[in-house]
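Researcher: Quick sanity check before group meeting.
Model: Go ahead. Protein one:
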Amino acid sequence: MQTSDPTTLASAFEKARLVQSAWAERPLKARAKILREVAEVLIHRQEELARLVSEETGKPEFEAYSSDIFPSITLLPMIADDGPDFLSDKKIAMRLLPYRKSKINYWPLGVVSVISPWNYPFMLAFADIAMALFAGNAVIFKPSEWTQRTGQAIQDLFDQTSLPAGLLQTFQGDGKMGQAILENRPDKVFFTGSVATGKKIAEFCAKSLTPVNLELGGNNPMIVLSDAHLDHATSAALWGGFCNAGQACGSVQRIFVHESIRDPFTELLKTKVQNLRSSRSAQTGPYDIGRITLPNQANHYEDQLSKAREAGVKIEMGGHLSPDRRYLEPTVISGPGIEDSEIFKKEFFGPMVAISTFRSVQEAITKANETNYGLVASVFSQDRRMAESVARKIQVGTVLVNEVLFTAGLMETPWGGLKDSGLGRTHSLEGLKEFVHARHINSPISGFMVFKALWWFPYTPFQYGMFRALGRIYSRSWSRKLRALPELLWNFVQFLKNEPRV
């Protein structure tokens, strides 16, 4: 593991603040032009970068491309094309005081830090960095210590463009480096990782009221209604639960199947799981599931599965580590008491899905919401209206109907959760708001409309009578509105006679 010199962080922040002030003055379209440069470099190096991500994480190269590199490519033209208009000043309709105008003006945060994880080491970091830079910020970036070469590759991409030096600076290291970055007081922290670390970051930043954006864990439910298409639903559960070897915050983990289709659903899913190809056994050709990225994850899996067995949870299939402890067999668990087990309640973050049942739609919704997490959920039904009705009652940041997980890489859509799954949103135009301040500006519509306000000193009875009548005009009753109008006009005239304002 490489470790950057933490004593250089102070000068790095100083340099970042210096170049950021000039960068913020550049028009949005000028910043967008540089994103287009980045896109061309990224497209030129896409296959090389997919191989790098695959090597560092162990995921299939196709998965590295489709879930890390390709979403990053699609982000750039969206932000470059639509971002300038989205972050331009927005007019506010003035119903009460039409002689004045209001607008929302967006301006950069300053110097932000991006601390990214190892499971999707390119896309999750790249998206935050690109959006932060477009919004006019500088970035101090710390990639995961487990995927340092991918982190450096991101830095190299931007260095190959005309982006001003110092706007993006990468610091390698473990949690101690992350702590050192926080101690240098970035203007906002964007962290993706574990719930425990996210809470520590939030606690530290709260002391200085430094805002945070946290994308943390998930224990994500998939509801399969009685009319769901079984082949479609089981294929979705297969990919949602086992892509990236289950090492995704948005992975399907808890599957709630209507009791009438529980057995055929489980058997069909198990058949499909058996057909998954592992990189451990695939000597040549493509494979579906790679190795465990972090060696210590094996200890976590072993502990959770051991407790599950002791609790009487049924291991339908899998559940064993390879002799080198770099692979966990794709695992399906079930059983009558599964919902009370620790493995069901906590984030597993590996190749495992847990199956339970429900009788009524309301029971399924209740069970889906019985968790400390709130990242993503899925609902499967051939009745789209019913599925969307269920979706509106699930307490998560994203609900997918007849799909799983994929919108984490769909850059047009926001991504983020609630409860222990985090704070804020990233990706999408909506996510751009996380990288800017919103400033309200109110001014006269012309130079001729400047006069002393009707609510300024000195206060008079006529002033009060005028405002009181004005309040009644907001009534839904037309008779009350009409009775208030003469009172309003009389008090207004008396007010001006006694205290001219123009």
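Researcher: Fine. The other one?
Model: Protein two, sequence then structure:
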Amino acid sequence: MARWPDQPQPAEERAGEQAAPGHRPVADRRAPADRSALADGLGRWSRESLRQRLDRLPDWHPSRPSQPDRPGGQREETLPDGPQVRPEPLTDAQHEDRVRHIRGQLDRARDQGLATDRQHLADQRLGIWSKDRRDAHDAIVADLYEMASNVPCERKAIMAGGLGGAGKSTVLGDHAHVEQSRYLTINPDGIKEAMARRGLIPQLDGLSPMEASDLVHEESSHIAKLLAGRAVRDGKNVIWDITMSSAPSTEQRLDDLDRAGYSTGGIFVAISIDVAVGRAYTRHRQGHEDYRAGIGFGGRYIPPEVIKAQADPDWGSVNRRTFEKVKPRFADWAVYDNSVTGRDPMLIDVGHCRRQREEW
């Protein structure tokens, strides 16, 4: 199976390299006749036959020759200077074909137990990950923490909630006037990108790393908790950028902050379910076009039915219901409506509940 350029090489492919104790390299375990048959089989794959197979791939497939060489998820700022030629955007029909492929691949991957919490939890009951994954978790946390080395330790926190695509970061910086450089932002989706950068997301045929990132959902949440735990122990200012779809999880985060003596504010950015579905579609499609051009790790695909399941008859979404439940625990809070694309978010409600604190 093909690998992303930055994905570690499996041990089975490192013929002749040092094997684990008690295991011979795969190449050495083959009988001479098997190796001869393998060589004969490879000889039948001529350059022309491979080219014909590649040409038959769908236009949206990352391995199709019309796609630019994948630079291992290199970021836009590392691309060469000068105008970049982007592939022709996929048509609506091609994109819908891709979506069907994504859904099928993810369903099969889950059925085959490819989610990383199924593959790499050494102890499911105790939640202990394998050593190589623990080492990767520690490295990600260390990198993210180092990037926040200038964030002060004032025991201030903000919990920002809302459906995906609500625009929480925009509201925080441009409308709530939060100086985000003074906070370590903890966002499980951002951690998924850090995992993609290290080749930790299972590779699925025809999917970008972020399209396959649902398979690391539990693991990315675990890493987010590790990062938050380190920050809270040091008293570092934090922003939890979450959806608030789960009331128990939101309350647990507040409990942790309260025990550590934090003063926590809350911000909720409200959008309708229909708007969330539309924005998820747009963000996924744009992310994939960037990926085809060699930028980033692709767009995350969120099935519409998953978003629609967050609907609530009283508050519009279960996310908003969670916020309304926990807002008495915030020192102060604000709600913004960002449902209208092209219009600035509107402040629709504010309040002060617990001990007063300094400006964010």
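Researcher: One line on it for the slide.
Model: The first strand starts at residue 121 and ends at 123.
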